[in-house]
Amino acid sequence: MLENTIFLTVRQRSRSYDSDEQERGACEWCEYALIITLATVLLIGVSGLTIFWTFFYREGYGWADDIPEKQFNLHPTLMVAGFVTFSGFSVLLYRICRCFRRIYVKLLHAIFHALAFPCIVIGFLAVLDFHNKKGINNFYSLHSWIGLVAMGLFGIQYAVGFFSFLLLLICNKGTANFRASLVPIHAAFGILTFVLGVCACLTGLTEKALFTLGAERYSGLPDEGVILNAIGVTIVAIVAVVMYIVSRNKFKTEPRNMRASVDLSETYASMSTEGIVINAIGMSVVAVAIVVLYTVRGTGGYRLRKVAQNPS
């Protein structure tokens, strides 16, 4: 009798989900497909446009060579990639991957953040090293202040998210309430970090245009100025699209996929083969981050100690 009741309840829930799917009209699915496609094109396009600007107008990239400006060029490109492209995708994953199991979405979310992390770190070290070589003061502008706050929040968000929503799944039942209470806080600060990163990119583009082109030439709107403005407008469009997608409750992950993740979490807690693979992916992400930091340090990125010893 009890088994029949449970079976009927499951069937009723399944029918309710099917009816929800049927209620979604063609216009709603078209809106979903259009807005997700637009967001994807903008997120990839802004990094492509930044790379084009760097090669076409700024002579490409370099590190510790005879042209320090080439090293500086890594800063805008990597910061746009880290704070806008990869962070934007990580924010949208819970709207894009609606049919995926929630644990897989979490893994993709962590991977995109892991891709953003070395971009932000190397981009920061590139401009810091460039300023030290040129004798330019650091951390004096509004752009640098916003960037520091954004980087700090990004690091905290990544550490808290990785620990709370991946590692604590090992003790799923004991940490369920804690993780559930942390979700809205993590989401809110994630949006805040994304917006601050965008603000840092926009103020940085303005600084670059004024310092490189000069106010008089920039006011004449040369070709390079048009490209820089186009990058800025694209970033603003990305913010508008991302905020629209996030604010639409209809784009959220489906409840049945959220419930399926609970079952998967219990399987994960028993250290199944799939759980071992998930742990291996997480450890690989950490290893990549360590290797990147070690490599950057070996190429002369960390000059802070030398600067402290020789202030002149």
Automatic annotation (TrEMBL):
Please state every residue range assigned to the domain named Cytochrome b561: 38-247
Q: What protein is this chain from?
A: Cytochrome b561
What is one GO cellular-component annotation here? Answer: membrane
Q: Which molecular function terms from Gene Ontology are attached?
A: metal ion binding; oxidoreductase activity
| Pfam families recorded | Cytochrom_B561
Domain of life, per UniProt, equals Eukaryota
Q: Which InterPro entries match?
A: CYB561/CYBRD1-like, Cyt_b561/ferric_Rdtase_TM
Q: How does it sit in the membrane?
A: Multi-pass membrane protein
Keyword set for this entry? Electron transport, Heme, Iron, Membrane, Metal-binding, Transmembrane, Transmembrane helix, Transport
Q: Which PROSITE patterns match?
A: CYTOCHROME_B561
Coiled coil (UniProt feature): none
First and last residue of the signal peptide: none
**Cellular compartment(s):** Membrane
Q: Which cofactor does it need?
A: heme b
Annotated membrane-spanning segments are 32-56, 76-95, 107-128, 148-170, 182-206, 226-246, 276-296
